[in-house]
Structure formats: C-alpha cells, structure tokens
Amino acid sequence: MRKGQIFLILGIIIVTLLISLRVSLNLTKIMETKRYMEVGLERREFQNIKDEILKRIEISIQTGNVTNKTDEFVSFVRDVMEAKTMDFNCLLVQTVHPVVSSGTDTRLNVTVLNYLGSTIQTLNLSFSYDLNANQTFSSVADRGRADANFTFNTGSNTDYTLTVYYSIGSENKTESITAPVEIGKSKLTSFFDLRLISSRGEQRDKFNKTYAIP
C-alpha cells in the first residue's frame, strides 16, 4: 500500500472519529436539555397540585365536609400521577374546632390522612393543652385515615401544638403542628407533607395553613 493511500485512510478514520464524537456530544447535550425540561415540568405540576389542594379546601369550607372532599381530591391526584408513572405521596393532618367561647370547654377534631404509600404501623397524637390525653392508633393503611378529638378550655387567644408521631417500617417521624385558637372564631388548620416522585427525582414540600371558618 502506498504512503499516500495510508495517509488517506488515516484521514478518513480521523474525520469519522471526529464526526462520531461531535454527534455523541450533541446527543448528550440534547438528553441533558430534555431532562432539564422534564424536571421543570414536574416542578410546575407539583406546584399546580399544591395550589389545587389549597383551592379545594377553601371551596370546601364554604360547602362543608372539608376532610372528605380533601380525601377524595388527593386520591384522585394519586391516580392521575400513577397513570403518568409518578408517585404522589402525602401526609395530611387537619384540625378543626367550632367557635371558641372564653372559659368554655371546646372540642378539637383531628383527622390524619395517610397517602404515604405504605401502612403507618404506629400513629400517636398528643395535644399541648393536655399531654396526658394522647391517642395512639395502629395499622393506618395507605389511603386510610385516623380520627381523634381533644378538649381545651381557654380564656384568651392561644397557639396550641399538635404533635404527630408515626412510624413506617424503619422510618420514624415527628411533626409539630401549630393550631391557633382565637376567642369568638372557628378555625381549620391543615398540615401538608407532599411528595411527587419520578425517575428524575423528588419534589417535596411541608407547610401549614390555617383558615377561619365563617
């Protein structure tokens, strides 16, 4: 083989390698851009879910059955996300009390909605007004709920704390939820621990919101 032919073949090989490398780099960039856009869409979808849950609660306060309607909507969101190959898991805790009169016993109703994807093996609720009145539940199934109530008596506006302890497998969690009480008003407090999980990562947010009930 002549020297010129060798150089020609080597030149073709080098050009081919350079083109392959460039194509490979372009494909990598395209894949990274695609993943970035998908993560951005998931963040937006997660924010939309949060906004819709809050909106549903506000509407339900006007029409009644807040907890039942929240439960139904969260179950619907879970089904929609599963169809998109994403997991929507959450823990929701709601406290509600009627209009508070100074120096009068008032009942605080508590509901825990378990959408964490697994059975809660142990759930313990304690209320800062009377820590001895704590209540414990076992085997709260996924998509299940636990209902409890506590009694308080106050002569002034007070911020109480509901402590929620739960265990799932080897995971133990404690959440402290502020439940503000105001003389002459009825209030609903909702605690949210929301998680949207996909092959690209996890979106998560925990927050508390209190509503005055007309």
Can you put this structure into words, describing what you see?
By secondary structure, the protein is an alpha+beta fold. Helices cover 37% and strands 45% of the residues. The longest helix is centred in the N-terminal third of the chain and has 61 residues, at 3-63. The radius of gyration is 27 Å and the shape is elongated. The chain starts with a helix and ends with a strand. The mean pLDDT is 86.
- Provide the CATH topology: Immunoglobulin-like
Uncertain segments are: none
Quick one: biggest sheet?
A: 5 strands, antiparallel
Instruction: Give the C-level CATH assignment.
Output: Mainly Beta
Which key phrases capture this entry?
single chain, 214 residues, alpha+beta, Immunoglobulin-like, 2 helices, 37% helix, elongated
SSE order and pairing:
Elements: H1 3-63, H2 66-83, E1 87-97, E2 106-115, E3 120-127, E4 130-140, E5 144-152, E6 158-168, E7 171-181, E8 186-198, E9 201-213
Provide a quick synopsis of the model.
The protein is of the alpha+beta class. It is built from 2 helices and 9 strands.
